[in-house]
Amino acid sequence: MDNITLARLLDETAALLEIDAADPFRIRSYRRAAETVEQQTTPLETLIGPDGDVKQLLAIPGIGKGMAANIRDLAATGTMPLREELLTKYRASMLELLRLPGMGPKTVALLYSALQIENIDQLEEAAKRGDLLPLPRMGQKFTDKLLKGIEDYRRNASRFRIDDARQHAERVSELIRQFPGIETITPAGSLRRGKESVGDLDLLVTGPACEPDVVAAAVEHVATLPLIDKLLARGQNKVSFNLRNGLQVDVRLLPRASYGAALQYFTGSKHHNVTLRQRAIKRGYTLSEYALMRLEDNKIIAAASEEEIYNALELDYIAPELRENCGEIEAAARHELPKLITRSDIRGDLHMHTTESDGSNSIREMAEAAIERGLEYIAITDHSKLLTMTGGMDDKRAIAHAARIRAESNRLAEEFAAKRGPQWARYERRLKAGEPNTHEPTVPFRILAGCECDILLDGAMDLENDTLAQLDVIVASVHSGFNQTPEEVTERVLRACENPFVQILGHPTGRKVLKREPYKVDVPKMLAAAAKYGIAVEHNSNPARSDLSDLQLRQAKELGCKIIVNTDAHAIEELDQIDNGIVQLRRAWLSAADLINTQPIDAFLAALRPRP
DNA sequence: GCCGTTTTCGGCCCGACTGTTTTCAGTCG
Fold it and tell me: Which residues of A554-585 are buried (b: 16+ CB within 10 A; e: fewer)?
């Protein structure tokens, strides 16, 4: 049983305990265990087998003797005594009821005991008949809201991709900012933490118009924004609404003095905050969205900035991407947080397309755009012939294209030597603008001649080895079209790793972030093979295509993989998507040293798998 | 059920909003 399934069963048990009105702290321990189990990079079932190391299991925070026994039972039998016991009292289908808005464990339990409601269909019927009305706190308004919630749930239990959510956040922010006296609008929540999908949008707004005595007017402005589809709630300083696409937006208007506390609070994650507040209490403080206060006299210790709050709790500042209660608080206390990777650490992008296949720009345009963004080298990797719909190259074209790429690279080198061309132009522009950290360029920009080759059924590439030998860098990718099962795709990639020309494994997961059922290729197996053969693994920054999750990135690092972050850009502006990729790398606690395209080109080329 | 440089027992996070209420329980983030 894999960790994800283990975590799901523990979490379900927690939900059943909630419906059963069990000890809330016992429930919390099941929830906590579920979360930590999900975050583990090694399969826990290997720790409990005959030659497993139970000590390692008990070393995981939140897992004690009882939980270890539960995990052992789950792995061995697929269930555990407590879960079975609860399932004789309640139905598994009731867990789905908890996902409806406004439905919590108490309500689910009440509906079951009063009306024997076990699932969403029965709930809908009962609500339509008006059976809910006699129950406490369930009037017409509650019933209407519930029916709407059921409808929404059936339509799409929707989450939004981070790049889409960011765009919506900007649109809404622009309109809010039109109100005079609003200075700062920051997206908080999972968007700020960089999760690859977000359920709703949290916008924190501050400025003179948000001070308590005048905030009502600004709230009115927000509550009447033209893009609101449905107003959900409206409080003294909070407005919630839906956009037409179903995305829920929560806007909070906050006084400047407590903005840091609010930002900290609403960025979450929930579990990070819980642990942080426990730490506050141990030190005689209490932490809320308004301030860190001393308990004995309510004196405000810190409130205006997040840094103050973390420092007052004797912690280094914790980047939002790390705030998942996965050991970051302990690491911050020991001053052992990693120096996370930033965009300026990236020196090369080894996966992009031009008009030669399905890209929109020329070799020169891609190179100039990369130079503009501070890169030192790129690889042009157009598609090979298997992907006919992209205009993929056959052997002859691939070789001719490589010659053009090298010619362009040489031209840039000549321009560089003559102190003209895009590298010097950028330098002079930055110098003139007084940009900090502006240095004279020292090495000519390099364009490597590459190809994004397809892996055939037998693991060979769809171009001849003679052709591959004439290119600088080979990205090997699996594209669909063979109608294979995930297991077969995994096998195909493993065979491809044995091909000595393969240097970079392109978008290895085939995963689409919002697909409900993840594509079940065996990623750890692929990563292990890549590590064994010295093949670099690409983290693809384009969230619309596929990439490695933060958990898989941690696995890649632990397995000793060479990791590369690429954009897979099909147009110059897509080079900026590197930011999406970097956020996931940061969430995986990776530093510049964990990647190879953070190195200067010579070191990078030396780190690639040697050519036969 | 977990956890411990104050503890192996007694703790375990905070506040706002909603609906149906005359003081609050439940849900949510």
Answer: bbbbebebbbbbbbbbbebebbebbebbbbbb
